[in-house]
Amino acid sequence: TYQDTRVAIQGFGNVGSVAAKLMAEDGASIVAVSDVSGGIANSNGLDIPSLLQYVKQNGQVTDFPKSESITNQELLSFDCDILAPCALENQLTKDNAASVQAWIVAEGANGPTTPDADQILEEKGVYIIPDVLCNAGGVTVSYFEWVQGLQSFFWSVDEINQRLERIIVNAFNEVKS
């Protein structure tokens, strides 16, 4: 579980909002999020179910109650355990990597960390979960849908999640070793 884990998520779209929901359900405290409208933070944790409803109604995270406004750069350097850049490429660069406080960077976006930033983060001891693993779930489940369509045989959500977990964990272990 993510008990006592503080998470900042850049990008509250398809990847970031689902990551926030799942991690919060598993005990993480989501302390900062952003979208194209701006960023919000609450060091005590944001109420993710309420935030998801708020975004559904308002189309953006900004002005969410019980939060303070922050910039994108403030989000990237926010005091947290896990930083999940889930928006755009080239967000962590040689100019801002040194200010990252997280000890894990979970690359939800494609190429959010430049090679120069990778080196800086590695020297700081930050563990990077590469995008090829961190955001591969959607593509993998699309493959499952294709296979199921070919066979006209459909799996339950639990079976899909079990198959996905097995594939992602195996891939992670292969990359890690």
Tell me what the structure shows.
- With 177 residues, this protein is of the alpha/beta class.
- It is built from seven helices and seven strands.
- A seven-stranded mixed sheet has the order 4-3-2-1-5-6-7.
- β1, α1 and β2 (29-35) form a beta-alpha-beta unit.
- The radius of gyration is 17 Å and the shape is globular.
- The two termini are 23 Å apart.
Compose a concise summary of this entry.
By secondary structure, this protein is of the alpha/beta class.
Q: What's the topology here?
A:
Layout lengths: L5 E5 L3 H12 L3 E7 L2 E4 L6 H11 L9 E3 L1 H5 L5 E4 L18 E3 L8 H10 L2 E3 L1 H4 L2 H15 L5 H20 L1
Parallel strand pairs: 1-2, 1-5, 5-6, 6-7
Antiparallel strand pairs: 2-3, 3-4
